[in-house]
Amino acid sequence: MLKRIGIGVLIIVIFVMMLWFTSNNPGNVEIDLAFGVVQPSIPLAFSVTFVIGWAFGLLCTAIFMFRIVNERRRLRRALRNTESEISSLRNLPLADAD
To answer: Which residue range is the domain that position 35 belongs to?
Structure first.
């Protein structure tokens, strides 16, 4: 419950800051891309940059999580094999017991 309230407050704060930033920066900016020049408004340019950065961060996190899940799967398989080997060794009769 507290987490949802915190996320809601964070979204409202970000929205208010975005409105404040938009009202204080009404101009346009010229962006020279390799294939052309575009002139978006400053808030639009910052918003697109933010979204692209967020998507890149999400992609990097997903790749990291995928690696961790694969390593965990590999370690669980190795643990199962080791446990079965230990169990079979415990069940062997003692050959040197006199």
So the answer is: 2-90
Helices and strands, counts by H and E, the chain: 2, 2
- pTM of the model as a whole: 0.60
Phi-psi group of 92: left, alpha or beta (phi > 0 → left; psi -120 to 50 → alpha; rest → beta): beta
Separation CA 47–CA 55 (nearest Å): 12
Does residue 79 come out as left (phi exceeding 0), alpha (psi in the -120 to 50 range) or beta? alpha
Using DSSP bridges, classify how beta strands 31-33 and 36-38 pair: parallel, antiparallel or unpaired.
antiparallel
**Would 96 be classed as within a structural domain?**
no
Q: Residue 80: how many CB atoms within 10 A of its CB? A: 10
Q: How confident is the model at residue 55 (pLDDT cuts 50, 70, 90)?
A: very high
